[in-house]
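FW: tagging you since you asked about this chain on Friday. Here's the raw sequence from the shared folder, copied in full. Didn't touch anything.
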Amino acid sequence: MKLFKQLTHAEMMGLNDITHEDGSKSYQNIRGGYITIKRKEVVELVERILSQNFTGWAYASSVEEALDSGFITKEEAKQIFLILD
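HL: got it, structure written out here
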């Protein structure tokens, strides 16, 4: 029987995301450079969204809900959209 490993979003995209000791994370952008999410709670939100393998803009409602509830700021929402886009 063959062993299969489920790839993360970053691995599928060939990106080199960096998880920092403080729980923040720098996501490599396909346009170049990195986008850093500083709050661990927001990193967990991004990771949950990525694990759901949304297609198109299906993830947008999750981000908008987090913004509307005050869980994330407008700047964090912009960063998340850049990461997920």
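FW: The chain has four helices and three strands.
HL: agreed, and The CA atoms of residues 15 and 32 lie 10 Å apart.
FW: great, closing this out.
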